[in-house]
Design a protein that fits this description.
This protein is α/β, with parallel strands linked by helices and 462 residues long. The chain has helices at 27-34, 59-67, 77-85, 110-114, 136-142, 157-161, 167-180, 196-206, 221-231, 277-289, 301-312, 329-338, 349-352, 356-360, 362-366, 371-377, 393-402, 409-423; strands at 2-6, 13-17, 20-25, 39-42, 47-50, 52-57, 69-70, 92-97, 122-126, 131-134, 150-152, 183-188, 211-216, 239-247, 294-298, 319-323, 341-344, 379-382, 441-445, 448-454, 457-460.
Length: 462
């Protein structure tokens, strides 16, 4: 069926034929092309934009946040306990605490969660998702133990696997939230060793409503081959598979991002590298051999330098880096030289502006979060790492434009559409309002999303 999108803010009508844009032009021209049976969609002076494309987020965790206990507003451990007591689930999952915002200025511990309920499993993730606290019941269920209940990085996995039984509900809740925010594509890093066979059919089903592109957290060469062989059975035009993803370090807030010098506010600690360079080399070689793109989570300058050193040995590959927060001039020049995909989250500045100078010192802070520079010299896409920050593109763009050395409004919009399409290898048919491009369109009026169309289907009524 043909659809005529009319009464846009700019006065230009859009003709959609099936799942693609057929033409743009004056109302009279588009009506003459559409024929008498076309559906008319009056967008009531909304601005029509290419659909927003979050270049890195976590769909299932977003749903977990929405259906679980939100702890991001807690100002003390006592408030965390109060919020957890209000959650009546067989497995209580809290997300979003930040010890920097708590009265006690410390992480919640096992004894704090046991005081809520010692018999029901409780797991509470820090907002960075690299650190969590578990109570005694959760640790018994997962078969792990630490006296304080605090786990970091890969040690968190056994405690999170117990949540898999709720995955379908979490994913659908995440899709609802993304569509309401104006996202038509989400590039998600949810598939990993241990869960991908179980989750693939759930994501294929969810992709009937929103375009899903996977960044796959598998680094073992044999398992990478197994994944590619089996994932083909689940691939559709709206459910696709992109890069394999590795971790180079942790988080800045948790002081596990790997720095070239010790943390200014924690002498003796330089953070934590997640992979030796030889291991990273083996992983990138496997991606190259399998003809797959590769990306790394890298926040600290030492981690970014390690990734770039490996990338230089593999020219011609599609290579990207996520986050890219702590940088110096040499790193920025390398990003330009290698034309590395820079997949950044300007909305992080909302929280990190309060800690970055404390963590890395004044000099390094001046050359960090250089997202505006990257937009002018390299390839940039925008995302939110939701649920680390909410996946609201309009809010992310506001921070991109207002942060020191930020992007222009045009650069931010381009990075959220064309840039993100480039990052997923779909720049020929995604990210623009142009004939032949996919009909992924968001409608915005007065700073509010009024409608969203994915693959030619309207998913939020105007």
């Amino acid at each position: 069926m043909k659809t005529v999108i009319t009464n846009t803010l700019g006065g230009r009508d859009i003709l959609v034929d099936g799942n693609r844009i057929a033409a743009l032009g004056t109302p009279a021209m588009i009506r003459s092309m559409a024929g008498p049976d076309a559906r008319i969609l009056d967008v009531q002076k909304s601005m029509a934009l290419p659909g927003f494309n979050d270049s890195h987020m976590h769909l299932r965790m977003t749903g977990q946040m929405l259906t679980g206990c939100r702890l991001d507003t807690a100002g003390s451990i006592t408030e965390i306990q109060s919020i957890l007591r209000s959650c009546h689930e067989p497995f209580v999952h809290g997300m979003g605490w930040d010890q920097e915002n708590l009265l006690e200025k410390r992480m919640p511990e096992r004894r704090d969660l046991d005081a809520v309920n010692p018999d029901i499993p409780i797991v509470c993730e820090r907002y960075c998702t690299h650190i969590l606290t578990a109570n005694t019941a959760a640790m018994k269920l997962a078969g792990v133990w630490r006296e304080d209940g605090i786990f970091q990085e890969a040690a968190c996995e056994p405690l999170l696997e117990a949540l898999d039984s709720q995955a379908a509900r979490h994913i659908q809740a995440g899709v609802d939230h993304c569509l309401a925010r104006g996202l038509t594509t989400v590039q998600i890093a949810d598939l990993k060793t241990g869960n991908w066979r179980k989750l693939l059919p759930l994501y294929r089903d969810a992709s009937q409503r929103i375009r899903i592109h996977h960044q796959v957290n598998i680094t073992d060469p044999k398992e990478m081959e197994d994944f590619l062989r089996e994932a083909r059975l689940y691939e559709t035009d709206t459910h696709t598979f992109g890069p394999f993803k590795g971790f180079a370090d942790g988080s800045l807030g948790g002081r596990t991002a790997w720095l070239g010098r010790e943390y200014a506010d924690e002498p003796g600690n330089c953070g934590e590298p997640c992979m030796a360079e030889e291991e990273m080399e083996t992983f990138v070689e496997a991606c190259d051999r399998l003809n797959r793109p590769v990306i790394f989570h890298a926040i600290g300058d030492a981690a970014i330098r390690q990734v770039l050193a490996v990338y230089r040995r593999h020219p011609g590959m599609k290579q990207g880096i996520l986050h890219l927060q702590i940088t110096d001039e040499a790193i920025l020049q390398d990003l330009e030289r290698l034309q590395t995909d820079c997949m950044v989250q300007p909305v992080f500045w909302r929280s990190d502006r309060n800690i970055v100078e404390q963590r890395v010192g004044t000099r390094m802070a001046r050359t960090s979060y250089a997202f505006g520079w990257m937009a002018s010299h390299a390839r940039v896409s925008l995302g939110t790492d939701c649920p680390i920050e909410d996946c609201d593109p309009l809010e992310n763009i506001r921070w991109a434009v207002s942060m020191p050395g930020g992007l222009s409004e045009k650069q931010a919009l381009t990075a959220y559409t064309e840039g993100s399409a480039w990052a997923m290898g779909r720049s020929r048919d995604l990210g623009k309002l142009a004939p032949g491009y996919l009909a992924d369109i968001v409608f915005v009026r007065d700073g509010t999303v009024t409608g969203v169309m994915v693959n030619g289907q309207l998913h939020k009524n105007l």
